[in-house]
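Entry 12.
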Amino acid sequence: NAGTEADVYISVYGERGDTGSRQLLKSQKPKKFLKGQTDIFAVEAVHLGHLYKIVIGHNGLGSGNGWFLDKVVIKDPVTDLDYTFLCHRWLDQGQDGGNIARELTVTDASTFPGRQELELKREETWAAEKWKFQDGNTLQFYSRLTHGFICLSPDSRVDALGDKKNKYGKVFFTWMCA
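Predicted 3D structure (C-alpha cells):
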C-alpha cells in the first residue's frame, strides 16, 4: 500500500522562479505511482536556473491514496544536471504527521553552483597541511573540555588523558575540541 491512485502535483523552484503547481499526468509506465516503481514525467517550463526545492503532494482522493515517496530526481535538459530531492516519507493523512504534501530541498551536492571552487580550496588546503600527517609526526589536539592535550603518536598510540602541558615541546597540529 505504498503507491497512490490520487492526483499528484509538483511545484519546482529555482533561482529564476517556479513552475507553479503542475499535475503529473502521463508516466512512461501504463499505471503510475505503484509501490516500488519509478515513474518518469515530462514537465514543460521555462528554464529556472539552479533548482533548490520542490513541493510535491496529492489531492488525497481515491482508494488507497496514501503514498510513500522515496525521492524525486529532476533532469535539467539545458544544463544536463540532475537534481535529487530525498523524501523517504509518507504523504498520507493517516501516517507520518498526516501531511499529503512535502517541501523538499535539493540534496545532490554535485548541483551546488560553487562546488568546483570549494573542491579547489579543499585540495589547496590539503596540499598545505598534509605534511602534518606524515610518518613520525605526533599530532596534538587541545581539548577545551579537559584543558589538556590529546596526542596521537606515530606508533598508533593515543594519549587521551588530557595532559595539562605540551610534553613534546612542539605542536604540529592543534585543534580546539569542545
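Annotation: The longest strand covers residues 81-91. Confidence is low (pLDDT under 50) at residues 169-178.
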